């Protein structure tokens, strides 16, 4: 199937982006240099076209919520105008997708899901959702732009007004701009102060251009996004989470509301009781080499794990990565050996995130 | 893709260049190669004194996208390595034909130069790859 274009595709072409297929979409990978894009995000502000991601709207009576029994998130306990990270699992407790739930009103939620899983997720939820609920895939009518970086608050004030400074981390509100009322959340995937904007797709180009008017703003692509999220130790579905991964294997127990029922919970309880045989770790290379996705982690002539993500970090000036390793071998400070396919790369297991003291929790109120 | 090709240099199909001065060849990768690879993050320092055959493996180079091999445009002994690349491998992106040179080779068989492309030949070769 031909990859789809986001409504901002022509803007990326005009900005001379390197465009490549990702998850069924032609997406900007960088606008000249992945490393420069990433550095600009941590020092100034970058905007990312994230319109490939999916958005679903669910409306139902919270007293008889079926969504609450489908995903791991505390759907009916969470407050209005708050976001929460969680999982959509199968009966075996394996990850179908990770997602962010926005509680828009007492009886209304928005789910933001990964592009590659949009249709699978929609089917999995459709099968389980109450017939009394309204469940709609609004992905094709939304342009999503992430505004990320230490100067992003100033940029957002000019777009949405002074009120954006009231947003707390993982909070959201509707703001009036560009002739409509649109969701802006204080969220992101970079570890910096940042916002995500969900706007009517017909207004997407106008918003993108308005954001670029600000002297501190540059566009950044998915290459930088991958470095930025990995520097923060944030997992990526498809890399850290694959079909046979449960949130317990990945050490994501804190995103499971075990006080309620949800699909896959029974299998997860069993997994927690038995204990996990592998764990998800972060590692830093002694030097500038980059371990790559699917490189093996070896010890004593055998395979003891594999790399799920690896990048060169321009902020710690080393190769960094994440991977699964036999639970007994993953203690912090342990030296590990990675088989690059041609030779070996040495690295040390380190605590996540790789970067601390970013602008993520900044507030001026 | 707009690429720079310098006159007076020799080129390989694998997108290395050689600048020949007397019996020394300074070697690097071309503008085409650095654009395709993207940001260079690491160049593996080869051992000085290593004997190389023409078109055989010289050293490894890593970019944000992938790890790749560099091949020697000419037979000879590695006489020097550009150690500025240890801390600043992005020199290969910023100035691939000058400050971003990788090694100098003491040429053992000058007749091999005929196996390389000149600038005009490489220009049309690279244009044909698009």
Structural class by SSE content of chain B: alpha+beta
In round numbers, the mean pLDDT of chain A is 97
Q: In angstroms, what is the radius of gyration of chain A?
A: 20 Å
User: How large is the share of residues in beta strands of chain B?
Assistant: 25-35%
Describe the strand arrangement of the main beta sheet of chain B, using strand numbers.
1-2-3-9-8-5
Shape of chain B: globular
% residues in beta strands of chain A: 25-35%
CATH architecture designation of the domain at 4-50 and 141-231 in chain A = 2-Layer Sandwich
Average the pLDDT over all residues of chain B and give the rounded result. Answer: 97
Oligomer state equals heterodimer
Q: Terminal Cα separation of chain B, in Å?
A: 8 Å
Task: Give the CA-CA distance, first to last residue of chain A.
Answer: 49 Å
* Rg over CA atoms of chain B: 13 Å
Could you say what the CATH topology of the domain at 4-50 and 141-231 in chain A is called? Answer: Gyrase A, domain 2
User: What about the largest sheet of chain A?
Assistant: 6 strands, mixed
Number of folding domains of chain B? Answer: 1
- The CATH topology of chain B is OB fold (Dihydrolipoamide Acetyltransferase, E2P)
What does this structure look like?
The complex is a heterodimer of chains A (365) and B (130). The termini of chain A are far apart. Chain A has a six-stranded mixed beta sheet with strand order 11-12-13-10-4-14, with helices on both faces. Among the domains of chain A are: 4-50 and 141-231, 2-Layer Sandwich (Gyrase A, domain 2), CATH 3.30.1360.120; 277-350, Beta Barrel (Elongation Factor Tu (Ef-tu), domain 3), CATH 2.40.30. Chain A contains seven helices and 20 strands. Helices cover 18% and strands 35% of the residues of chain A. Chain A has helices spanning 9-14, 34-43, 118-128, 152-160, 204-213, 222-231, 265-274; strands at residues 4-5, 18-22, 25-30, 45-49, 54-59, 83-89, 95-105, 108-113, 134-137, 142-148, 172-177, 180-185, 194-200, 217-219, 278-285, 296-299, 302-313, 318-326, 335-339, 344-350. Chain A has 365 residues and is of the alpha+beta class. With 130 residues, chain B is α+β, with helices and mostly antiparallel strands. Chain B has a single domain, classed as OB fold (Dihydrolipoamide Acetyltransferase, E2P) (Beta Barrel). Chain B has a six-stranded antiparallel beta sheet. Chain B is globular and about 35 Å long. The model of chain B has no long low-confidence stretch (mean pLDDT 97). Chain A binds chain B through residues 30, 33-36, 223, 227, 287-290, 292, 311-312, 319, 340, 342, and chain B through 38-39, 41-42, 60, 62, 64, 66-67, 89-90, 93.
